[in-house]
Amino acid sequence: xxxxxxxxxxxxxxxxxxxxxxxxxxxxxxxxxxxxxxxxxxxxxxxxxxxxxxxxxxxxxxxxxxxxxxxxxxxxxxxxxxxxxxxxxxxxxxxxxxxxxxxxxxxxxxxxxxxxxxxxxxxxxxxxxxxxxxxxxxxxxxxxxxxxxxxxxxxxxxxxxxxxxxxxxxxxxxxxxxxxxxxxxxxxxxxxxxxxxxxxxxxxxxxxxxxxxxxxxxxxxxxxxxxxxxxxxxxxxxxxxxxxxxxxxxxxx
Length: 253
Hints:
Layout: H1 3-29, H2 35-39, H3 46-55, H4 57-64, E1 71-75, H5 81-90, E2 95-100, H6 102-109, H7 112-116, E3 125-129, E4 143-149, H8 152-155, H9 162-172, E5 173-184, H10 203-211, E6 216-221, E7 244-250
Parallel strand pairs: 1-2, 1-4, 2-3, 4-5
Antiparallel strand pairs: 5-7, 6-7
InterPro entries: S-AdoMet-dep_MeTrfase_Alr7345, SAM-dependent_MTases_sf
Protein name: Ubiquinone/menaquinone biosynthesis C-methyltransferase UbiE
EC number: 2.1.1.163
């Protein structure tokens, strides 16, 4: 075999090894998935696409830093809108625990989550029916992330020990794991007093409660803030977009 052929073969081999190395580096660095493509998946429902307009899911997933292979607990999953998006993002190598209490399922969700659970995208989801102040199954630990989307205010008017709930979430995360929490803004000074009437909570109050469990605030998202919201209207009756805060907490390493 002449030398030019050998050189060509060697170059081809080196190029292939370089590609393999590059793929390995991308895998190790955990490059962010294409969140917009996940949201645009053609098999998502029209109802979920309507919800997308106010929830900005691609921005939320990016802010949270959800990646393939993660194990995540989705608190108060309700009908599973966010659960499904999380499941699509973590993929078949990841797992989502979708939590809700039996009372809330019976009153508000009924068969909605079970219907959604039949979708292929939900095959990596485990439905967890447990009370909010003890939300994590005993065999579940070292979670990468916990999400709590637009529902913490609901907990404030239920018979729930929120301090115990927050401590359980903290304990279930791995060191360095994240809690992503978003909710509807109340006016300063209102605390939890309008949780049931307006479905809102004061951001400062929520921060105080969560941080008391040991969580450290690492980022705040402004992509759901709406200054035109007077914050004195029930969320489901507001004629303008709702002002909402998004917070990213971390369990210290």
